[in-house]
Amino acid sequence: MYSDPMNLKLELLVGFGLGLLVACGTPASSDDGDACPIGKHMCECLSDGSCDTNLQCVDGTCVFPGGTDETGTTGTTGTETEPETDTASEAEFGDGDGDGDPCPEGMLGCACYGNATCDEDLMCEDGTCAEIVCAEGTLGCPCYGNMTCEGSLVCEAETCVEPVCPDGQEGCACYGNDTCDDGLVCEGDVCVMSCPEGQEGCACFGNMTCNVGLLCEMGTCEAPLCPAGDVSCDCYPNMTCNVGLACLMGSCCVEGELDCACDPDMACADPLVCNMGICEQPDP
User: Fold this and answer.
1) Contact 253, 232 (CB under 8 A)
2) How far apart are CA 212 and CA 6, in angstroms?
3) Is residue 206 over pLDDT 80?
4) What is the spatial distance between Cα 96 and Cα 115, in angstroms, rounded to a whole number?
5) Average pLDDT of the chain?
6) What is the sign, positive or negative, of the torsion defined by CA atoms of 252, 255, 260, 266?
7) Which of 33, 169, 180, 263 could disulfide-link to 184, CB 3.0 to 4.6 Å?
8) From start to end residue, where is composition biased (Low complexity) (predicted)?
9) Residue 209 included in any domain
């Protein structure tokens, strides 16, 4: 059937116009081609201005930070961009609330929590969460908040250091319970060598005596300058001396020597002679 050319042109124009109307009225679609759900990538932001995880609300549309998509390409030109480095903090993806805060509190490089703390294995420095380089309370690291440290460490100039004189050691302060390391006793809040009564350099017994061979001098047991029983020293209280010595007039001498007792065989060293039990020079 023959068609009027004018009618044909009119029909084409009407069809083209309807096509434009349909195209303009079609709702935006998401990456998968479906209708664009609110909060999804390249879709309208939620009513509170937020988007799904790892998305930011920019000019009312949910996009990846920096305008990149999941593959690292831009959402506008399609050209490739540098992939994100491994060192980038997760905080760079933002917290998804569209408020311009790209760094959640408590995370590395982000603000500390309100109580000046951070997530596990992080510490709060000048209001920012940083890696723990030096654990509080340990040697060479900052003291705890109450100016104390671990174990026997002491806090000096806000740093934990080894004490110059550790508690419990000789010449140092006693422990808090007035005790010291083995072999030491606490006297006047200072640890000193344990010194049992009766021993040399220690206190005399209650009756002002000491162990055998020691004298009690001014309350302290001391070795005599000339120990009893030794040659040229006083005899023992029972008037005896050490082996090979004889007690003569309260003093110990060598048997058989001049002016000492003769030996048990009543003999003396040459050329001495034994006269009435005493070794003497022979007559001229």
Assistant:
1) yes
2) 146
3) yes
4) 24
5) 78
6) positive
7) 180
8) 69-80
9) yes
